[in-house]
Amino acid sequence: MWNTVKAYALLWNAKKRKGIIKVVLEDGSDHKIVVKSASELNTLGNILRHEQPVHYNKHNGSLASAWELIKDEVIK
User: Which residue in 8, 12, 62 sits closest to 37, CA to CA?
Assistant: First the structure.
């Protein structure tokens, strides 16, 4: 079941070398996503920062952006 992410927070613990992303969903529930590298935290953080809307699947812990249309461009 996919729900729209309304808010998020990122945490990186340098000593333990792991991170947590906390997402708050449109239904008011919150969920934690554990990440194992700074690179993974950065990648997921970029999705949350730059894509709108972002959805979270409560059952499998996935994040997804919305569909985007591909525009036809004229090449000159």
Answer: 12
Structure confidence at residue 68 (pLDDT): 82
DSSP string, 30-76: EEEEEESSHHHHHHHHHHHHH-SSEEEETTTTEEEEPP-PPPP----
Q: pTM for this one? A: 0.83
DSSP code of residue 1: -
Q: What is the CA radius of gyration of the chain?
A: 15
CA 46 to chain centre: 8
